[in-house]
Amino acid sequence: MNLPSKKDRAATIISKIIELDRAYGMTIPGRLSTNEQMSRLVQTEDKWRAFITPNHRVTIGRLTERQVGVRYLRDPESTIYEVQVFNSPRLVVNMRGDEVHLHSYIPGKWESWFGVDDRDSTPFDRFPFADPKSPEWQALVRTADYQLPPLFDQPPDKPYDGPHRPGGGRGKRLR
Q1: 31-69: b (≥16 Cβ within 10 Å) or e
Q2: Cβ(151)–Cβ(59) under 8 Å?
Q3: What is the pLDDT of residue 94?
Q4: Is 126 helix (H, G, I), strand (E, B) or coil?
Q5: How many beta carbons lie within 10 A of that of residue 95, not counting itself?
Q6: Residues 23, 90: Cα–Cα separation, whole Å
Q7: CA torsion sign, 72 to 75 to 93 to 101?
Q8: Quick one: three-class SS letters along 40-82?
C-alpha cells in the first residue's frame, strides 16, 4: 500500500473538485443527521459526483455499546470530501486546512477524469485494518495519518487499541 502516493493523488483530486465547485457546484440540504448546515454537490457528468460537507469528519467509532462502524462527527476544523462514481463511494477524505486524512480510497480508471495517474490499484480502507494485531494497522498507527484516531467515547487518557475481530453486521464487535 503506497499511502503517500494515495494522499498526493487524493489532494490533487480534491483541488480539482474545489475548482469545479466554483463553476458547477450547488448548495444542497445537509446530508448528515448532525448537519444543520448546507452541503455542496459538484457534478459535471452523470458518471461521478462529489459531496462537500463542512465542519464534519468521518471516522471509525462506536455505534452501540458493542458495535463499531463509520461515524460522522462534528469538527469545525474539518471538511469531508466524498467522490462517488456510479453512485459508489470511491474516495472519502477528511481535510483539515491543507492536510489530507484518507478515510477510504478505491483507485481506478475514474482517477484519470481528474488528471491523476491510476498506476496504483490497491484500495485503502481504515475499517478492515482496525485490528490492533494486524501489521497493516500497526503500520498505519505509526504514520502521521493516524492523527485523527477513531472516537470511542473513551477518556482522553485511555489509549485506543482498536476493535477486535471477528466482525459482524454494520460494524465490528468488541470483546
Answers
A1: bbeebeeebbbbeeeeebbbbbbbbbbbbbbbeeeebbb
A2: yes
A3: 92
A4: helix
A5: 20
A6: 22
A7: negative
A8: EEEEEECCEEEEEEEEEEEEEEECCCCEEEEEEEEEEEEEEEE
Set of cell numbers at residue 63: 455505534
pTM: 0.70
- Give the torsion through C-alpha atoms of 78, 7, 24, 19, to 10 deg: 90
- Cell triple for 92: 472519502
| H or E segment and range at residue 26 | strand 26-28
pLDDT per residue rounded down to tens, the chain (175 residues): 455 588 889 999 999 999 999 999 998 887 776 656 788 999 988 899 999 999 888 887 766 666 667 888 888 899 999 999 998 999 999 999 888 888 889 888 899 899 887 677 777 766 554 556 666 666 666 665 554 445 444 434 444 344 333 333 444 444 4
What are the domain boundaries of the chain?
3-173
Residue 122 DSSP label: -
* Grid cell for residue 20: 469545479
